[in-house]
Design goal:
5-stranded mixed beta sheet; single chain; 10 helices
Length: about 325
C-alpha cells in the first residue's frame, strides 16, 4: 500500500519546528525557523510554506518517492499555544511576538487546498500519543504536559475533547491551592504554578530560603550548593540533584509529585480514563517524581476508579512528539 504524508508544525514562542511525517510515524524531513522575529502572520506563514515546499520537493528518500506534490499531502496539522480547533485561530497567545486573533487556517489556505487543522499544543501531544504512541487502541486517556507551563489533552470515547469554546482541557489552570501562588494566567493557586518547570524551581528556592542549603552540599559536586544563586537554578538542575541524593531537591520533587498525583486523581473523576500519560522535561527526573506521584494518586483516587487507570510516560521521543502530534491532528478532519 502506498504511504501517505502530512505536515506537522509546532509553533513555539522561540522557534517553529515542522516536519514531513509518513503515516508510519516517521519524520522524513525537518525544518525550523525562529518564531520571535515575526510580528505579522502573513510573512510568518509565507516563510513556513517555503520550508514545506523544500521538504516535499526532497520527497521521502528512504522510500525513494521523489518529490511529493503539495496536493498529495493529507493535510497540515498545527499545534500552537491558545490554538482553537473550531476557528483555526491562535487567540492572543501571550508568548508569541505575533499578537492578536490569528487565523492560521485561512492564511495557510492561500497556499494549499488540503485540510489545515489547528489545536493547542497539549491537544496535539495527546492526539499524537493516540495515533502514534502508547495510547494506540485506547479510547479514554489524559495527556499532561509539564514544561514552562502545564497543559493537557483529553480523549474520551476516542475523540479529542474541545468543549463548547474549543479550549477545553486546561487542567494546568485548575486551582490547586486557593489564593496560592500567582499564576501566569492571572489567577492564583493553579496547578501550573506548582508543577511547571518554573513552579518546581520556586518550590526549591522557597525550601532553601526556609531551611538553608545542607552543609554537606559542599561535599557533593552534583548537589545544588549555596554558591549557586537562586536565579541560576533550573528544574533540570533540581532533578539531577534529586537523583544524586540532594535532600532539598528530593523534598521538592516529593511535594511536586504529591500535587501532581492529586491532580491526576481528580482528572479521573470527570473522564474515567484508562491511562494518564505524562511528558515534558520535568518528567525525565524519574523516580523522585514518579514514586510520590503514584503514591498520591492512589491515596486520592475515588474508590470506583481504583485499579482501572494507570500512569505512563509518553511513548514518543521527546524531540519528535510535537511534530508527530501536530501531524496527527490531520486525522481529526480526514477520518
Amino acid at each position: 500500500m502506498q504511504n501517505t504524508y502530512a505536515i506537522g508544525i509546532d509553533v513555539g514562542g522561540t522557534n517553529t519546528d515542522m516536519g514531513l511525517v509518513r503515516d508510519d510515524a516517521t519524520i522524513v524531513a525537518r525544518r525550523s525557523i525562529p518564531t520571535s522575529i515575526y510580528t505579522q502572520l502573513e510573512p510568518y506563514v509565507r516563510d513556513i510554506m517555503e520550508q514545506i515546499k523544500e521538504m516535499v520537493a526532497e520527497g521521502d528518500k528512504e522510500k525513494g518517492t521523489g518529490a511529493i506534490a503539495l496536493t498529495d499531502l493529507t493535510g497540515i496539522g498545527i499545534g500552537a499555544p491558545n490554538g482553537n480547533y473550531y476557528t483555526g485561530c491562535v487567540e492572543w497567545a501571550p508568548n508569541l511576538t505575533i499578537k492578536g486573533l490569528l487565523n492560521f487556517e485561512e492564511e495557510f489556505h492561500k497556499y494549499v487546498d488540503c485540510p489545515v487543522v489547528l489545536s493547542n499544543d497539549a491537544n496535539a501531544a495527546a492526539y499524537g500519543e493516540y495515533v502514534y504512541g502508547g495510547a494506540r487502541g485506547m479510547d479514554h486517556f489524559v495527556m499532561i504536559t509539564l514544561g514552562t507551563g502545564v497543559g493537557s489533552g483529553i480523549v474520551v470515547d476516542g475523540k479529542l475533547v474541545h468543549g463548547f469554546t474549543g479550549t477545553a482541557g486546561e487542567l494546568g489552570h485548575n486551582i490547586l491551592i486557593p489564593n496560592g501562588r500567582q499564576c501566569s494566567c492571572g489567577r492564583k493557586g493553579c496547578l501550573e504554578a506548582y508543577t511547571s518547570a518554573r513552579g518546581i524551581v520556586q518550590t526549591y528556592v522557597e525550601l532553601r530560603q526556609a531551611k538553608g542549603t545542607p552543609a554537606e552540599a559542599a561535599n557533593h559536586s552534583d548537589w545544588i550548593g549555596a554558591d549557586i544563586a537562586d536565579k541560576e537554578i533550573t528544574s533540570k538542575m533540581i532533578g539531577d540533584a534529586a537523583n544524586a541524593g540532594d535532600p532539598l531537591a528530593k523534598e521538592t520533587y516529593a511535594m511536586v509529585g504529591e500535587w501532581l498525583g492529586l491532580a491526576c486523581a481528580n482528572a479521573c473523576t470527570f473522564s474515567a480514563p484508562q491511562a494518564i500519560f505524562l511528558m515534558g522535561g520535568p518528567t525525565k527526573v524519574g523516580a523522585p517524581l514518579l514514586e510520590p506521584l503514584k503514591k498520591s494518586f492512589e491515596a486520592n483516587l475515588l474508590n470506583i476508579y481504583k485499579g482501572h487507570c494507570s500512569i505512563y510516560m509518553s511513548h514518543l521521543k521527546a524531540n519528535e512528539v510535537a511534530i508527530l502530534g501536530a501531524a496527527a491532528l490531520v486525522e481529526l478532519k480526514t477520518n
